Amino acid sequence: MTQWLFPPRPVPSLPIVGSDQRFPVRRILCVGQNYAAHAREMGSDPDKQTPFFFAKPGDAVVSDGANPSYPSATANLHYEAELVAAIGPDADGGVAIVGWAVGCDLTRRDLQAEAKKTGRPWDAAKGFDQSAPCGPITLGALPAPAGAIGLSVNGEVKQAGALDDMILNPDRIVAAAQALWSLQPGDLIFTGTPSGVGPVSPGDSVVVTVEGLETLSFEIQP
Questions:
Q1: Per DSSP, what are the bridge partners of residue 166?
Q2: Sign of torsion, CA 89 27 10 141?
Q3: How confident is the model at residue 194 (pLDDT cuts 50, 70, 90)?
Q4: What strands, in cross-sheet order, belong to the sheet with 216-219?
């Protein structure tokens, strides 16, 4: 029996709609600037730049209706509504998308802007604690593959887009990720955000929706 120096942390996980089982989260991969309008609002030209990946640790996930805390070291925390693809085993011994969820990529935008200027990694801007609120996973095919995706803050709509506005659709995202990593069951892929990203403050109520999936709601804690 392995003798641990200290007890290992519990495996982060997400609930599954209609099941007592849970989805164990291994890691989180995220696609940057996968909607043309969002790429433009971030100062990029989507016709000249293909979408790219960054990562969050698996324990950045915020699940089961918990409320994330406003992080340290930022004065400009941004929301980004996302469709999340859940990776699991397929019948041939490989991996595939086995389900879907609604997520929110929280971003320390000021730290990201500084990292961009200096050419440094985005880890502190994207991969901080509680930076990946996520709703429950719905297994099977995406209910509305061309459906609406949106986000509101305190009841005011901030983002309103459609999944078929993605530059890379989920299947192409998985293929691109597999060219860079060995995807494993338990990986989550945040597939990008539409335009309209912006700041949130402590006390703000955020609601993220993707047509056909369980809504994600949370309140930013001090």
A1: 35
A2: negative
A3: very high
A4: 156-162, 148-153, 205-210, 216-219
